[in-house]
């Protein structure tokens, strides 16, 4: 995990599903766990970022990511 991935997690918008429109760091941990249990993270970069987001949330490290969010001005 590098800083660029943390910035992407803080600013990548969920493109589908119940939490469409939220940035990944704001997607609830339970939703990410659902993907993990079903072993159905999307393929590619989005799935990779979702898996990293789950690790960050499960380790209580959201405080490292939230300051990297772009302001919505």
UniProtKB/TrEMBL annotation:
InterPro entries linked: QSregVF_b
Database matches in Pfam families: QSregVF_b
Protein name: Cytoplasmic protein
